[in-house]
């Protein structure tokens, strides 16, 4: 007699699907990072003269950089929070569709607090990276070149 | 200067943002391309799998679903009658049973025993090493076997080795002594899971493993129609032979597979391809809009110089086409790499036939990908174009000077 724990055998299939969705989520994070980065670079470019003036009156590079990084962080966290809210609303529609399609009571999508926290946690490094790169694109130039003088 | 040249210069001037936008579109476009491949990949892969077997007709017991293993009673007389039909070129029987490898000093290891009427194993396995079942010398000798790669690697069953197999009866090993089988070759069994332990032998070997007595049944029966005869005509001719069998063409099997198997992945691909298309649209629209807002003075100056609204609109449209076009082109090789990775993840699913793939490239996916991206470029440029063409020239220039 070979005993196979039901939990383990079920997990094998679900673990594969879980890995598949994790891989897709990772790709989406890469795309989102590029999106946020582009947005932050444009925002930084938009304010290069302001940054130049700030540099000329003695505000340090570090202070300006921290400001841009915090901005990137706030945008990323706000985006993640909105994403979690949208997913929270969408989960009912997704579950209803698949439960009707497969005639089952299984739950296909659940936005648990752990998943919500993980999404926000992923957004933090994304925001920091976007903010750092965006601030570097303007702070590497001299103050006079930023104010076009 | 043409609108295209102007768009190209703008992209070069704002290189960092252009590169980032292209990277974003390439990554999200790759995911979109993958989802388009996933939407039909399984069906195409399954159809390829069936076509590669060289049989175009499957026969099963009357109670069976198209791919279920409902046995066919009185299989040998039916095989003879099918073979005698003028519409049929060849026919084969496959029998299956659960058994175990029984070797001294080793606990029995479960396996699937296959008995095939075709020594070449067409439709069941593809030989990768050694020889097929027709390499046997005589009826009195040990029956030959072709084993799966997983079995060969696990038990070091190289061609020439002898293995001992005992069949299982009603879920437990029977009292019938284990029969020796000579490993003639190693094969791939595309309809079975990659890690399955499979031993395929002749119908004689299969009968010997059952103590020399087997009921006249078959789990599968394959047939191929004669050249020049339509598959439907051959299917109809076989179906008329006996009322207790069901006959399916490969097309019917593929259609049934499309309706019932792995529908979750096709639905999830539809959801994700829509989501990624919206994401690309949002990305390009946002970047173009912010970019236009940043260049309002520049646009107003061009308008004041006499550049027509249509040319401004065309320039912005070209900007969108450049970003989406270059990003979308990069998306194809990235998507292909990503598809390989995702396919390797999904193919670890237990029990999945070794020959089945989730992501299959086809020109239709590329065409659809191009159509989605073209639509994205046009829609994404609509709002920035509207902003640019409705710009009050004098007021914008004044604001630019004052600021």
Would you write up a description of this structure?
The complex is a heterodimer of chains A (about 150) and B (about 400). Chain A is mainly alpha-helical and about 150 residues long. In chain A, about 85% of the residues lie in helices and about 0% in strands. Chain A has helices at about 5-45, 50-55, 60-100, 115-140, 145. Chain A starts with 5 loop residues before the first helix and ends with a helix. The model of chain A has no long low-confidence stretch (mean pLDDT about 85). The radius of gyration of chain B is 31 Å and the shape is elongated. In chain B, helix 2 crosses helix 7 (about 250-260), helix 2 crosses helix 10 (about 310-345) and helix 9 (about 295-305) crosses helix 12. Chain B has helices at about 5-15, 15-50, 75-85, 150-155, 205-210, 230-240, 250-260, 265-295, 295-305, 310-345, 365-390, 395-400, and strands at about 55-60, 70-75, 90-100, 110-115, 125-130, 145-150, 160-170, 170-175, 180-190, 200, 215-220, 220-225, 245-250. The chains are: A mainly alpha (about 150), B alpha+beta (about 400). At the A-B interface, helix 1 and helix 3 of A face helix 2, helix 8 and helix 10 of B.
């Amino acid at each position: 007699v070979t005993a196979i724990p039901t939990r383990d055998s079920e997990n094998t299939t679900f673990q594969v699907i879980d890995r598949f969705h994790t891989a897709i989520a990772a790709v989406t994070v890469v795309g989102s990072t590029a999106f946020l980065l582009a947005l932050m670079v444009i925002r930084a470019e938009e304010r290069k003269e302001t940054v130049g003036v700030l540099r000329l009156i003695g505000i340090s590079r570090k202070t300006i950089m921290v400001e841009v990084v915090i901005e990137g962080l706030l945008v990323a966290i706000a985006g993640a929070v909105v994403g979690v809210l949208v997913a929270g609303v969408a989960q009912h529609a997704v579950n209803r569709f698949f439960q009707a399609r497969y005639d089952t009571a299984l739950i296909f999508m659940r936005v648990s607090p752990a998943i919500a926290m993980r999404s926000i946690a992923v957004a933090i490094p994304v925001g920091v990276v976007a903010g750092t790169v965006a601030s570097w694109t303007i702070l590497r130039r001299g103050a006079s070149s930023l104010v076009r003088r | 200067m043409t609108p295209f040249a102007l768009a190209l210069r703008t992209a070069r001037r704002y290189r960092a943002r252009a590169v980032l936008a292209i990277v974003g579109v390439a990554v999200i476009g790759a995911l979109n391309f993958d989802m388009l491949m996933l939407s039909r990949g399984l069906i195409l892969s399954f159809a390829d799998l069936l076509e590669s077997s060289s049989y175009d007709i499957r026969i099963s017991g009357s109670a069976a679903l198209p791919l279920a293993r409902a046995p066919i009673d009185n299989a040998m007389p039916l095989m003879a009658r099918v073979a005698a039909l003028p519409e049929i070129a060849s026919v084969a029987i496959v029998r299956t049973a659960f058994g175990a490898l029984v070797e001294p000093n080793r606990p029995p290891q479960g396996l699937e025993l296959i008995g095939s009427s075709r020594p070449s194993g067409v439709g069941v396995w593809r030989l990768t090493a050694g020889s097929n079942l027709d390499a046997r010398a005589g009826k009195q000798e040990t029956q030959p076997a072709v084993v799966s790669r997983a079995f060969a690697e696990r038990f070091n069953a190289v061609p020439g080795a002898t293995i001992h197999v005992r069949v299982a009866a009603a879920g437990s090993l029977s009292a019938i002594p284990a029969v020796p089988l000579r490993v003639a070759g190693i094969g791939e069994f595309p309809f079975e899971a990659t890690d399955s332990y499979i031993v395929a032998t002749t119908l004689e070997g299969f009968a010997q493993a059952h103590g020399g007595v087997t009921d006249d049944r078959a789990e599968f029966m394959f047939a191929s129609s004669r050249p020049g005869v339509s598959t439907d005509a051959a299917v109809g001719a076989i179906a008329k032979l006996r009322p207790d069998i069901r006959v399916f063409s490969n097309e019917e099997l593929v259609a049934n597979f499309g309706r019932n198997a792995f529908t979750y992945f096709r639905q999830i691909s539809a959801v994700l391809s829509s989501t990624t298309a919206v994401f690309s649209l949002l990305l390009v629209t946002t970047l173009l809009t912010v970019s236009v807002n940043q260049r309002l003075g520049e646009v107003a100056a061009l308008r004041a110089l006499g550049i027509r609204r249509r040319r401004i609109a065309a320039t912005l449209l070209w900007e969108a086409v450049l970003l989406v076009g270059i990003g979308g082109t990069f998306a194809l090789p990235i998507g292909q790499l990503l598809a390989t990775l995702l396919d390797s993840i999904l193919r670890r699913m237990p029990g999945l036939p070794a020959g089945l793939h989730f992501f299959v490239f086809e020109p239709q996916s590329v065409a659809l990908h191009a159509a989605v991206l073209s639509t994205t470029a046009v829609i994404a440029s609509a709002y920035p174009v509207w902003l640019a063409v409705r710009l009050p020239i004098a007021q914008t220039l004044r604001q630019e000077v004052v600021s």
